[in-house]
Design goal:
Elements lengths: L1 H32 L8 H32 L6 H12 L16 H30 L4 H5 L1 H10 L1
């Protein structure tokens, strides 16, 4: 059990480093395009937000891959694609249970699920921050013309 805790916490630390790197990259990507939001069309704003979303999603999928490598290294799965699938199920807390690890290593599943909840939460917070900011920057563009309720919510929050 102690070995699994050490392996799990060490893997979480590696995942946190990847998350911070890609979260920083996503926010820098957004910051460099922020001035374009003032007069951006709906599709222009969506393309910027999509870039942020894909960078954040790539970070989460990278973490799934790291856990899958650990599972395969430990001999839990003979095929990487099975290890990746199982890792994605754990990370997303979906928990199908159609594939399980051995009794010796199954504690790693809940540890990875905790990691997934935290990292997906970080991604969600970053994405919502950029979405809110994009709406604020677009007060005179598509948000003001096509989504007055969104504008009211932004104004109330200030």
């Amino acid at each position: 059990m102690f070995t699994n805790l050490v392996l799990g916490v060490a893997t979480m630390a590696v995942c946190l480093a990847l998350q911070i790197a890609l979260l920083t990259r996503a926010l820098l990507y957004y910051a460099h395009r922020q001035s374009a939001l003032d007069e951006a069309t709906f599709f222009g704003t969506m393309s910027i937000l999509s870039g942020v979303m894909f960078l954040l999603m790539f970070g989460n999928l990278g973490q799934v891959a790291i856990w899958a490598i650990l599972f395969q290294f430990l001999g839990e799965f003979s095929e990487y694609r099975t290890a990746f699938y199982h890792s994605a199920v754990n990370f997303s807390t979906l928990g199908y249970g159609d594939i399980v690890m051995s009794d010796k290593r199954k504690l790693l599943g809940p540890i990875q699920a905790i990691n997934g909840v935290l990292m997906v939460g970080m991604s969600t917070a970053a994405f919502m921050t950029t979405l809110r900011d994009a709406i604020k920057h677009n007060r005179h563009g598509w948000a003001a013309k096509h989504a007055p309720k969104i504008q009211e919510l932004v104004d109330e929050d200030q």
